[in-house]
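Before our next group meeting I need something from you. Please put the record directly below this note.
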Amino acid sequence: MPEQHKRTLIRHIAVALDCSPHSRASLAAAAELARLMHADLTGIFVEDINLLRMAELPCCHEIRMYTSEPEKVDSSQLERSLKLQAKAAEESLQRIAGDLMVKHSFRVSRGIVSAEVISAALDADLLVLGRSGRSPSCRKGLGSTARKALEEGKKPLLFIRPGFSATEWPVLVLYDGSEGSQQAIGAALSIMYPGITLSVLILGETHEERVEMEHSLSETISLPGGMVEYHHLPMTCGKTLMRYIRMVDSGLLVLSDRMKISREEVHELINDIDYPVLLV
């Protein structure tokens, strides 16, 4: 296999845990990939320092569903709640990683959630995050920790949502001949389970350019037990790409923010599209 399509080497996967549905889906996907790649798995739980500081303010109250009056936030009770959440997260990690026979560890830290997660994952080859976290919000798009990781440039990043299975869903790669898209091809080949379909969306200025890129890829990509499908699309903006990706309804989207499409458009696409995304 040529160097430009060299498979990504992943030996250590970090996953952020907070007991939310997106977090549980992230843990399942991270464990599946760790088993496939014979990688170590580290679960990261962060005690939110801002939440603890807020609880100490005399003006801080909460309104619960079963009470009619605001109640003062009990900081000691909040501490206990965080400990229980951390314990539940660790037990989930032990159960899922244990079932898959994946070597795993668990880390608890206290601080700004996004900063602590990114810092704890610095020595990992892949950081897995839920697209959204625990914070209730009607706003669509990435949660605060996922957005911060995207802005900080930590890569590779895998954003997961509930309903995704790394062992079953097909993979769609954006390819335009750039170095970034070549790395995206290599990363996709690294994480694919046998029998999964790989779809390559080739982006080019002209029909001839796209045909040449497909010919070059077809000579270098080998996918034992799986199938490769090629799709062509004129070089276009992120919003047109988003409409096409939704129409294809693929499982995991793999791309780079070092393509001919601008970095800003790639990040906007990742934020707006409700699909699992691997950014390399």
